[in-house]
Specification:
Blueprint lengths: L3 H17 L3 H14 L4 H13 L3 H10 L4 H18 L3 H14 L4 H13 L3 H14 L4 H13 L3 H14 L5
């Protein structure tokens, strides 16, 4: 059996490799073993929760998150972000958005959180908060084409047509081959 730091690292690498190949069931088993070997490892538990989410096991993913000990702002924000994703998947839109919004406020440099929160707000037809979130994230990540694209969508749906057109033109101007 793999034990200790090198064993934990090896299991994490194997689990990430399996998840990258969409072998989520196998990845989940590897991350579960990682948690058994090193219950204090944030990365093992977080990745187990991700694997369970990918397997559409929202309850298992939430239970895994509750068992995690998050240290520091980034880990706590990561837990809030993933909790939000899980709640959204489980159909709990309001709670999911609130959890993601708190995570984004705690760590506004997390581009993935901003994108997922923006999309959740767009789906909820909360265009103004979506635009605010995406604009704030765009100030931190000015070269992100995904943020710009999602922001232009939110602006168009929210009736801010001039901004939507300007941002769409910027996307086309910056990279006409990939639009």
């Amino acid at each position: 059996a793999l034990r200790g730091d090198s064993g934990t690292e090896a299991l994490l690498k194997l689990g990430v490799l399996l998840a990258g190949r969409e072998a989520y069931s196998e990845a989940g088993r590897v991350f579960a073993q990682c948690v058994r070997n090193d219950p204090a490892s944030f990365e093992c538990g977080y990745n187990l929760a991700l694997a369970r989410l990918a397997l559409q096991d929202s309850q298992g993913a939430l239970l895994t998150l509750k068992a995690l000990t998050a240290n520091g702002v980034e880990q706590k924000a990561a837990v809030g972000y993933l909790r939000g994703k899980i709640l959204l998947t489980a159909g709990q839109e309001r709670d999911g958005i609130e959890s993601m919004a708190a995570a984004f406020r705690a760590n506004p440099s997390d581009e993935n959180c901003a994108l997922d929160l923006g999309l959740a707000l767009i789906r909820a037809r909360a265009y103004s908060p979506a635009i605010e979130t995406l604009r704030e994230a765009s100030r931190i990540h000015p070269d992100s084409r995904l943020l710009l694209l999602e922001m232009s969508l939110a602006e168009a749906l929210g009736g801010e047509y001039e901004d939507a057109v300007a941002h769409s033109r910027k996307l086309l101007q910056d990279d006409p081959a990939n639009t």
